[in-house]
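Figure 3 (text version): structure tokens given as input.
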């Protein structure tokens, strides 16, 4: 198996556990590798199956923000194990689906897991979100589910997404977005902590105002701003349960996740779904 060109310790751990046949991780993270969405957070049951279902709901919320319709050409950037492509493949017809990822190990699993149906076509491509290997005006929709914080540069990704979108096309993504109050803490943390830790390199200092300015400067219109923070909070209870069951406990994973949980519960960090439209 080819190594990943970027350091993603959480994917190293996940791939090893999936390969070892961990049934709970297969249910929770075997398809999607992102937070869950609970319409009513009180209904969360902290089981792997419940978490897997909530992760599927989050994916659907992101592609609803992109207004995917039958026959579209859809690019899913940072496609993980192909879960978003799998969901689109199950729920739509005649889509031309392309999943792009920088990590060949994830693409290998995606190719094994996802087979086209409903007259859809599926291609998985290795590449970098900031240098998309596609011609101008190739796609109706571009998606980026919970991955933009890993990309080398948000502006470069937005410019690339705009370039590959057809006129009238849409980009939708989900991201952890700090409120301005959190920015000094993020900067302090960056200055003190040099090891990126369990989640690898993460750029988490893009506020909603930054997103609006970025969209405007590249020529995209903001179409959707959906705050789903409260719907994602049961994720932290599930991750807490997973983390404490691990022997030995991974302290890097534990402390990073506990910090994200705390600032999310304090409403300093929002989980947003954002949609953008390219002018016709
Ligand atoms: C949290 S995972 C989300 C995966 C998938 N979108 C999902 O929701 O299941 C982040 C993903 O971003 C990918 N990624 C990180 N940097 C990338 C880059 N520069 N270009 C393309 N993909 C990248 C990682 O390999 C990983 O699959």
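Below: residues designed for each position.
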């Amino acid at each position: 198996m080819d190594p990943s060109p970027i350091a993603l310790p959480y994917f190293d751990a996940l791939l090893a556990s999936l390969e070892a046949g961990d049934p709970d991780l297969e249910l929770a993270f075997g398809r999607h590798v992102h937070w869950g969405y609970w319409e009513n957070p009180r209904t969360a049951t902290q089981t792997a199956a419940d978490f897997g279902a909530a992760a599927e709901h989050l994916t659907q919320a992101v592609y609803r923000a992109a207004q995917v319709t039958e026959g579209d050409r859809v690019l899913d950037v940072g496609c993980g194990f192909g879960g978003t492509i799998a969901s689109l493949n199950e729920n739509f017809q005649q889509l031309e689906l392309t999943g792009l990822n920088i990590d060949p190990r994830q693409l290998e699993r995606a190719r094994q897991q996802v087979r086209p149906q409903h007259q859809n076509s599926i291609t998985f491509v290795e590449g970098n979100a900031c240098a998309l290997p596609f011609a101008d005006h190739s796609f109706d929709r571009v998606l980026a589910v919970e991955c933009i914080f890993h990309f080398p540069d948000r502006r470069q990704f937005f410019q690339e997404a705009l370039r590959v979108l057809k006129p009238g096309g849409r980009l939708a993504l989900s991201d952890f977005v700090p409120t301005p109050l959190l920015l000094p803490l993020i900067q302090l943390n960056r200055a003190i902590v040099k090891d990126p830790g369990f989640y690898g390199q993460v750029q988490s200092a893009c506020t909603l105002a930054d997103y609006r300015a970025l969209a405007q400067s590249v020529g995209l219109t903001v179409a959707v701003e959906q705050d789903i923070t409260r719907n994602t909070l049961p994720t932290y209870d599930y991750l807490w349960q997973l983390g404490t069951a691990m022997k030995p406990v991974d302290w890097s994973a534990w402390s990073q996740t506990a910090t994200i949980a705390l600032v999310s519960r304090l409403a300093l960090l929002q989980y947003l779904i954002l949609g953008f439209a390219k002018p016709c």
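Residues 9-277 form a domain with the Rossmann fold fold (CATH 3.40.50.150).
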